[in-house]
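Structure first, sequence second, as always.
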């Protein structure tokens, strides 16, 4: 039987800073009494491998599918590089409180210390409260000694760049860049397959057992990129009924597609899977010889690499993130 657009069961992650907007805005069906901070939409992380929920492959996990279909599913180049490990982790994140100030290692450091991949990521802001902020990068020229001095004197917030955020904005966070999501933000996150985070500061919070979460300053100071960047927000122009570029990096490409009419999509020159993340509206994904697969706000779908042409048929104005490896 032929491969088809694959939908997966969302994996909920309860967090000390989580809320309920994954349910109320993105139509998830998680426990409404729990603080759900993350919904893992497509994951190849060990212990949290995504499981198919539609079609004849229902009940199979992503690693099993890669083992069977190899390059037909993920693309020959992707399979040759990553084998059975799916290279991206797709999440929705609901910050009902400030997240920790943190940093992620690059591939070289993560391989040496953890035998894992590093973590470069991007955020697309879906919804934000009026005064929501995030921390990203430093607000002045910086080095390790200046950073450690700020930590020791309780002045970390004075050296980190703080940005007001709005819905439909985009931020790229390469490995090594200090960052923290502020409260009141709902976002889509696209990242390398990695769950390595070095916490620098956690606002003195305590868990349900009265314990503060572990910090990792010794590791963080070694992987931080102290480069001062004047600008962090990604400029982009979304054009109706076109695929418009958001982020292009060695680990993933992300575009935004806003459309109100059917679009014929051609991936004949792309040797990669494609992921659609629905940010608004709903549409049908039509492939030759198969029943249409519906996609609504808050849902994510994996388009196998061997599906080179398809039609996106909107039922109303629809907005997708389009993700692949090039």
């Amino acid at each position: 039987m032929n491969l088809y657009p694959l939908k997966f069961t969302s994996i909920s992650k309860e967090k000390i800073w989580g809320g309920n907007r994954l349910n109320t805005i993105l139509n998830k069906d998680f426990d409404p009494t729990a603080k759900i901070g993350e919904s893992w939409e497509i994951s190849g992380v060990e212990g949290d491998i995504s499981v198919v929920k539609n079609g004849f492959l229902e009940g199979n996990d992503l690693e099993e599918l890669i083992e069977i279909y190899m390059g037909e599913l993920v693309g020959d180049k992707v399979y040759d590089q990553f084998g059975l490990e799916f290279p991206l982790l797709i999440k929705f994140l609901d910050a009902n409180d400030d997240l920790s100030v943190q940093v992620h290692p690059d591939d070289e450091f993560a391989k040496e210390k953890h035998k894992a991949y590093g973590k470069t990521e991007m955020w697309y802001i879906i919804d934000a409260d009026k005064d929501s902020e995030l921390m990203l990068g430093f607000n002045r020229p910086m080095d390790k000694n200046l950073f450690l001095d700020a930590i020791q004197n309780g002045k970390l917030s004075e050296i980190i760049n703080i940005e007001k955020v709005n819905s439909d904005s985009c931020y790229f966070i390469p490995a090594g860049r200090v960052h923290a999501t502020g409260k009141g933000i709902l976002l889509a996150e696209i990242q390398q397959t990695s769950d390595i985070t070095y916490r620098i500061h956690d606002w003195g919070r305590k868990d349900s057992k009265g314990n503060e979460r572990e910090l990792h300053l010794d590791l963080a100071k070694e992987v931080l990129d102290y480069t001062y960047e004047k600008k962090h927000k990604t400029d982009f122009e979304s054009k109706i009924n076109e695929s418009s570029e958001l982020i292009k990096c060695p680990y993933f490409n992300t575009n935004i597609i806003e459309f109100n009419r059917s679009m014929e999509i051609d991936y004949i020159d792309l040797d990669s899977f494609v992921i659609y993340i629905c940010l608004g509206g709903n549409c049908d994904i039509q492939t030759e010889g198969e029943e249409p697969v519906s996609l609504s706000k808050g849902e994510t779908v994996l388009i196998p690499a061997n599906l080179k042409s398809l039609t996106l048929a909107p039922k109303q104005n629809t907005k997708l993130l389009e993700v692949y490896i090039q």
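Margin note: The mean pLDDT is 96.
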